[in-house]
Amino acid sequence: MRWLHFILLQCLLIVLVAAVVYIHNDRVVVLKKPPVSLAQWYKPENKRQVWLHNMFKLRREMQAVRFYSGNENTEHLQKWATRLSEHYLKIGEMVPEWSDKLNRDAITLLQSSAKNGRYQNVSDALDKLAESCKSCHADYRAITATIYRAPDFSSLEIGPSISFDTHMQNLAKQVNQVKIASEDGKKNVAHSSLAALKQGIDKLGETCLDCHKKDKQVYPDEKINNTITNLEKSLTTGTPKEQGEVLGTLAVLACARCHGTHRLAYDSRKLMSDKPNWLELIKH
């Protein structure tokens, strides 16, 4: 009788969760997070992007196998089929949790068919392997790239006790302060806010070199610096319309372009990587 009560309780919980998800189906997105063991094959835990290189090898090897199978070139077919088998099975060694997702029967068929010149069977085996790849990619490729390849700015500091996030908020306030002061005819405030903005942009640019090591200056570039100079002049002699246009150009060059690349990726990574906040979830 106790087991019956337990089973009924489990069924009730499942129905309850399903009902909540259904009610909020316009706000619920279900994602499968990759196993934590995958992290060891990506930077920064690894010096090289080992997982990515294994994927690149597989793609190249599948192309070569299909090419030599189509040309009935047994010698080269066996060479590339052997490499393909090795790197495909390596997936299970690198991430044991995904070992059962591998189509080992297709690999066996590929190896024997390549050895014996059964070219149609090679093609069939490749199709099965491709389906295996697509299935895993559909579940994990996007979220894996988001977690392990998007930039992480959380540990950056602009200065003593000044976090990256705080600095970015200050820059946004300074841009708006320039606009407010310009629109209200307060030239001194507009100029002082622009000076603070320029200093903040220069300080931000120093952090870019942490990743863009080969470039002497990534940010701010010449266009941004020229636009700041034009805005300084416009705040003194220009019309409100001209000032707004130059400020808008600066916002695109100094803010929007980088946000389009880095902020979207970072925000997505943070969303996927942060541990669940159960209080927030219940509140939701």
* Structure summary, number of beta strands: 2
Count of DSSP H/I helices: 10
**What is the string of SSEs from the N terminus onward?**
HHHHHEEHHHHH
Distance between the termini: 36 Å
- Rg from Cα: 28 Å
Summarize the structure.
Helix 2 (50-70) packs antiparallel against helix 3, helix 2 (50-70) runs antiparallel to helix 5 and helix 3 runs antiparallel to helix 4 (104-116). The chain is built from ten helices and two strands.
Task: Detail the topology: elements first, then pairings.
Blueprint: H1 2-23, H2 50-70, H3 74-94, H4 104-116, H5 119-149, E1 157-159, E2 162-163, H6 164-183, H7 187-208, H8 222-237, H9 240-273, H10 278-283
Antiparallel strand pairs: 1-2
Characterize the structure shown.
There is one protein chain. The chain is built from 10 helices and 2 strands; from the N terminus they run αααααββααααα. With about 280 residues, it is mostly helical. It has 2 domains: about 35-150, Four Helix Bundle (Hemerythrin (Met), subunit A) (Up-down Bundle); about 155-284. It has a two-stranded antiparallel sheet with strand order 1-2. The longest helix has about 35 residues, at about 240-275.
Question: What would the keywords be for this entry?
Answer:
single chain; 284 residues; mainly alpha; Four Helix Bundle (Hemerythrin (Met), subunit A); two-stranded antiparallel ribbon; 10 helices; 2 strands; 73% helix
